[in-house]
Design brief:
2 strands; single chain
């Protein structure tokens, strides 16, 4: 199985309740692929929400993601 990451962008544009509903909807849609063990991250470039956590996860999955960080 191939693991993958789902990134929900513009998370600052919806309420926390709506964000959770969307996350649950995504989880339901991908439930038929349980072997892939996807991670879901909510991010916002405007306020930085979730960006640091996503960078850490990506750097841990592939060294190319951590190159060039100064």
């Amino acid at each position: 199985a191939v693991s993958y990451v789902i990134v929900m962008t513009k998370a600052d544009k919806v309420s926390p309740e709506q964000l959770e509903k969307r996350k649950q909807s995504i989880l339901a849609a991908i439930a038929r692929r349980p072997a892939a063990f996807p991670s879901i991250f909510a991010t916002s470039a405007s306020n930085g929400m979730g960006i640091d956590k996503l960078k850490i996860v990506l750097a841990g999955t592939n060294a190319l993601f951590s190159q060039g960080e100064e």
